[in-house]
Amino acid sequence: MSTENILDKVKKLREITGVGFKDCKNAIDENNGDIEKSIEYLRKKGIAKANKKMERVAADGLVCISEKENKISIIEINSETDFVAKNNEFIKFVEEISYLTLSNSGNMEKILISEMNNKKNVNDNLVSLISKIGEKITIRRCDYLKDEDKCSNFSYVHSAIKKDMGKIGVLVSLESSKSKNELVEIGKQLSMHIAALSPLAIDKDDLDQKTLEKEKEIITEELKNSGKETKIADKIAAGKLNKFVNDNTLLNQEWIIEPKKKVKDVLSEVGGSDKIKIKKFIRFKVGEGI
Known about the structure:
Layout: H1 3-17, H2 21-30, H3 35-44, E1 60-68, E2 71-79, H4 82-85, H5 88-103, H6 108-112, H7 122-133, E3 138-145, E4 151-158, E5 165-166, E6 168-175, H8 180-197, H9 209-224, H10 230-248, H11 263-271, E7 277-285
Antiparallel strand pairs: 1-2, 1-5, 2-3, 4-6, 6-7
Helix pairs in contact: 1-2, 2-3, 9-10
């Protein structure tokens, strides 16, 4: 085998088993490049804890936010259990990668090859941590809000285990002629609202059409089975769909602090003559959708 081919097999074996480079290289050499035999070899040696580690589900973990000069990043790193999510070594790993997420403007490809404090890149440190802790750990997703003219960016972490690190993270960008200091209170409140009510989009036109069609289909089938007359069923369906849209679009949701008002009403009141526009929001909940 060529050196390049050997290194590819070593990399694959590391990803499957979480074992270090040297042991994987020895296993590949001893088993003529056969991955399955190399896994068995490592298990017999007591080095590999499981040959299907990377097929297990990692749906726990942490969300971490970093911020500097109106630039904010968010990243989700998953583990299999809450026990590992509370591990100090895992927490330090997440925290350091969060800083790299900010410095790399949320570019995952750049993050994974970035050098960490120990002079090894993120990918290599990830494999080492998997080997040491014995659980599947994945760097799942990240996002970023850049500093833009007339935009003020805010963040919030729910169930924080320490500053800017927890189970739910929210970023929100507000466009206004008001200064960031003038928008701090509404920015924080809005971030908390998004964390609690989990909107799918900013307004009606931003909702995914497939989501709307699916909801319409569910409502229609539900009413068919109820035996109601077609005209009545159509009116009820329209009302239910409208409620779904209002419940799932941020501007049309009831304001969590004062439910008699909608979010768009509160923004209008706070903005006054200086209109406040929600330019973007991002909400990460650990394990959501896995």
